[in-house]
Amino acid sequence: SANGKHGYYSTWKPDGIGDRDIFMITFLGDEKPLLTAMQQEKPAFAIERTRMKTSLLPPVEMKGNALVLLEGTIRDKVTATPLGVVVEIIDNESLQMIASFESNATTGKYMVSLPSGNSYGFSIRAAEYPFYSEILDIPPTNSYREINKDILLEKLTVGAKIILNNIFFDFNKSSLSEASIAELNRVVKMMNEVPSLKIEISGHTDHIGSEVYNQELSENRAHAVVNYLTASGIDPSRLTYKGYGESQPLAGNETEEGRQMNRRTEFEVIAL
Question: CB-based contacts of 222: which residues, under 8 Å, 6+ apart?
Answer without folding.
Answer: 201, 202, 203, 241, 242, 243, 265
